[in-house]
Amino acid sequence: MRTESARAALIGAAFAALITLPGLGSGTLWDNSETAYGEVAREIVLGHDWIVMHLNGSPWFVQPPLYFWIAALFAKVFGVGAFAMRLPSALATVAMGGIVGYATARIAGSRAGIATAIVLSTSLMQAVVGRLAIMDASLDLTIAATILWWYRTYEPRASGFADDMGKRNLALLGGTLMVALGVLAKGPVAPVIAGLVIAVWAIWESRVGSPLAGPQRRFYLVALALGALVVVPWFALLIARVGPTAASELIGHYTVGRYTGVIENQRGPLYYYVVSLAAGFFPWIAFLPPALWSAFLTARTRQGSFARLALVWAIVPFVFFSLAQTKLPNYIALEWPALAILVGLYFEHAANGARRSALIAASTIPLFLGGIAIGIPIFAAASKIKGDIGGLSLDLALIGATMFVGSALTVAALAIRRTGAFAPYVLGLASTIAVLEIVLVGEPHAERYKPIPVLAAAIERERKPGDVVAIRGVAGGNGLTFYTAPGVKTVDAEVDRGAAPSLQSVVCTDARVFLVTPTADELRLPTFGRTRTIVARSSRASLLRYDGPASCP
Questions:
Q1: Collapsing DSSP states into helix, strand and coil, what is residue 513?
Q2: How far apart are the C-alpha atoms of 362 and 280, rounded to whole Å?
Q3: By C-alpha distance, which of 532, 502, 519 is closest to 455?
Q4: Listed residue (40, 130, 50, 134) closest to 92, CA to CA
Q5: pTM for the model
Q6: Cα separation, 33 vs 265, whole angstroms
Q7: What pLDDT shows up at residue 476?
Q8: Which of 19, 407, 424, 540 could anchor a disulfide with 365, C-beta 3.0 to 4.6 Å?
Q9: Nearest to residue 491, comparing CAs of 482, 481, 480, 504?
Q10: pLDDT of residue 207
Q11: Residue 231: its H or E element
């Protein structure tokens, strides 16, 4: 059993590594979150302050420090850049593929574990989150490990595995350690989600008469002490340095406030995550409806404990985040392991003879691709980005062709009984190739649509001590800070107010000013009597330099 579980873990980790590590450091960071979080990590390296996070030179109390600590350590080893900032997410994703594959193989068998690990590691959002300089991959890993370890803690004795009190005790401690790290990764959302999933699952177990076991009672105190030892020191040091307002802003405004209100205009309708799930779990979303039905039938039996856990894990976070006022697609990525488990168990069922629904599901993938092909031009026209999308049309066609061929081969594998078990490998490999095409072909082409890195490089070539860097009317202030230095000023974007007061205060106060502004505005802006030079242009943005004597009121 351990050998089979280890094999599933190794295959899952290998697929995750293949889909996340190649080209990880190529190109530049994406605005807005990547450059913001990358800059916070960079300012740890620059300022040597590991307690109070900083952004653009100012204290920043938006997220806990775990991701930034790890990224800063990698930056010390590999240098400050995209590779170091994205490596924490990639490694967390690799670990996730291994852990989920191992746990599923232990419970449901090697074939189900391998299928689950492949599904998880090659789903679109899992690959995206694993390649971004954000803390979601770390959070998702800690929540997955917590749920799986706590499931092992209370796993019903009737599940078929030998009861070992020592292993239950260790599982409780392991889950508590991971949920504590989850708090340091992204705050109280880790214990809230993990606790809700395990609680609802336990209630369901009691309703079907499945007897839960548990650890020795004294280990609850040990687990509580372990969790406090991980979480409390940083919060205590932060409060000692800055005061209680820092913790209250982090937890109250940016955690509870995200749920009860809208932060940074990131709102969405109640059905927001239906679309996110359909796109993010591609291509495996095609198999999710029959997988849900198959799991529901299994969950009705007394032996269906793991299916019940996967269903609860898939449904509870979906409902929880759908009710939140602030919404982002990556918020529900923490339930991807549950979706992968459901599809992995379904493939096991299909391999044992129930292949008709799997064939139908695989056949719908080309239809999904066709819908995307029709939708992209419509979206581009409505969003007035037709030219940008047109420049990537060949890349999109290549990716679509890869997935079309992969889905066709998957259908062929499922149609033959002796090759049905290889269907997850086929579609997983196609998905991996498609992601690598995005990374190695599409992303380099997309670089030309990022104006900030080019303009920042021009600033760094000409910059002298005492020069000021400012930005107005162009998205990318965090990127400008990351690629230059902290202290970038954001000025008033309005040009129809006459003197544009905030722009005037910058141009008239500082000796020499570099200003990033929309290209359409470069000649409309007032000079205030100074010399205005166009230094560089890049993708609808221009870099201006103000110098010389000022004639300001």
A1: strand
A2: 17
A3: 519
A4: 130
A5: 0.91
A6: 14
A7: 85
A8: 407
A9: 504
A10: 87
A11: helix 218-242
